[in-house]
């Protein structure tokens, strides 16, 4: 899937319940959600993400709760929103998988995921448009931390080794590494944070590797500061066109995610 139209289907509200939970690594919990309506879910491919809605305790939601109802109550019941990537959608069995990184502290989304049990409700809006993989690109450079692994897996799946790809992923340690769908033209480097400031190991890994060749497309998701530094490196030092450099701040150190778009 790489045409613009197929990558830009509009999102809607989904009211789902947790069906299964699996520990992928010590810090990643895969939460499979379900709803009969998910039989109608049509994905946008690659890094499509969703906004998980967390309403304050005490807000009584109208039922059935729909996109229109969420819009109607929005002026007096604004949910906190957190972004997550669709790791896999299986509309044929009404399931969607989301991989939640359990970062330290009892934070809204991470804390919800750590405590989630089958039967719990999860309300979300999506999917967003997705990154369009260009199969004609000379090469790919994919970078991220554990929050971007779901997107990197989806991009690699779609790329299917059609172009050479270099992948750099920062995780806490070797126990956090995951299996990736790689072919012979893809190389993967895992950078271990080991308690260091997030992004440092990723920066060293990417900048210590060979300079990307002309025509390389860059995709990444990680802490804001390292994404900004890598964007400057790619555009100013490597001379890649800005339009070929798609680096997103997935989270910001010491700041809650503010995500008040979408509705
Ligand atoms: C497009 C997009 C897709 C994303 N996909 C995923 C995904 O599939 N899986 C996933 O786990 N995350 C994903 N994220 C990142 C996730 O949205 C953020 O980590 C979010 O801040 C988590 O919300 P929270 O309520 O747990 O923490 P918040 O309330 O937002 O933040 C609380 C504190 O936790 C810190 N914090 C937040 N995230 C992390 C982290 N990863 N590591 C260490 N400290 C952190 C913040 O700096 C802050 O101090 C994605 C982000 C974007 C923008």
Please, could you describe this protein's structure?
It is a single chain. With 263 residues, this protein is an alpha/beta fold. The protein has two domains: 5-126, Translation factors (Elongation Factor Tu (Ef-tu), domain 3, Beta Barrel); 139-251, Rossmann fold, CATH 3.40.50. It is built from five helices and eleven strands. Strands 1-2-5-4-3-6 form a six-stranded antiparallel beta barrel. Strands 9-8-7-10-11 form a five-stranded parallel β-sheet, sandwiched between helices. Strand 7, helix 3 (149-159) and strand 8 form a beta-alpha-beta unit. The chain is globular. The protein starts with 11 loop residues before the first strand and ends in a 12-residue tail after the last strand. Residues 259-263 have low confidence and may be disordered. Bound molecules: flavin-adenine dinucleotide. Residues 49, 82-85, 99-101, 103, 107-110, 147, 150, 248, 250-257 line the site of flavin-adenine dinucleotide.
What attributes characterize this protein structure?
disordered C terminus, Rossmann fold, globular, Elongation Factor Tu (Ef-tu), domain 3, 263 residues, alpha/beta, binds flavin-adenine dinucleotide, 2 domains, 5 helices, 18% helix, 11 strands
SSE blueprint and pairings:
Blueprint (H helix, E strand, L loop, with lengths): L11 E14 L2 E7 L14 E6 L12 H7 L6 E11 L4 E7 L6 H8 L5 E6 L12 E7 L3 H11 L5 E7 L14 E7 L7 H8 L8 E8 H14 L7 E7 L12
Parallel strand pairs: 7-8, 7-10, 8-9, 10-11
Antiparallel strand pairs: 1-2, 1-6, 2-5, 3-4, 3-6, 4-5
Helix pairs in contact: 4-5
Bound molecules: flavin-adenine dinucleotide.
């Amino acid at each position: 899937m790489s045409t613009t139209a197929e990558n830009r289907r509009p999102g809607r509200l989904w009211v789902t319940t947790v069906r299964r939970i699996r520990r992928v690594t010590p810090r990643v919990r895969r939460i499979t959600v379900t709803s009969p309506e998910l039989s109608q879910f049509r994905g946008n491919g690659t890094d499509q993400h969703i906004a998980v809605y967390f309403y304050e305790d005490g807000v009584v939601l109208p039922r059935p709760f729909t996109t229109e109802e969420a819009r109607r109550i929005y002026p007096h019941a604004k949910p906190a929103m957190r972004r997550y990537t669709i790791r896999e959608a299986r509309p044929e069995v009404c399931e969607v998988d989301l991989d939640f990184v359990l970062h330290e502290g009892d934070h809204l989304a991470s804390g919800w995921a750590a405590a989630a049990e089958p039967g719990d409700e999860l309300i979300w809006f999506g999917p967003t448009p997705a990154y369009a993989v260009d199969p004609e690109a000379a090469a790919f450079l994919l970078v991220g931390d554990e929050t971007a692994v779901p997107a990197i897996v989806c991009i690699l799946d779609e790329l299917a080794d059609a172009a050479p790809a270099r992948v750099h992923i920062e995780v806490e340690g070797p126990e956090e590494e995951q299996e990736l769908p790689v072919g012979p033209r893809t190389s993967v480097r895992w950078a271990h944070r080991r308690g260091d400031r997030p992004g440092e190991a990723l920066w060293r890994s990417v900048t210590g590797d060979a300079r990307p060749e002309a025509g390389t497309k860059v995709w990444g998701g990680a802490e804001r500061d390292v994404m900004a530094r890598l964007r400057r490196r790619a555009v100013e030092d490597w001379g890649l066109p800005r339009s070929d450099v798609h680096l997103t701040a997935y989270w910001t150190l010491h700041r809650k995610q503010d995500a008040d778009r979408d509705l």
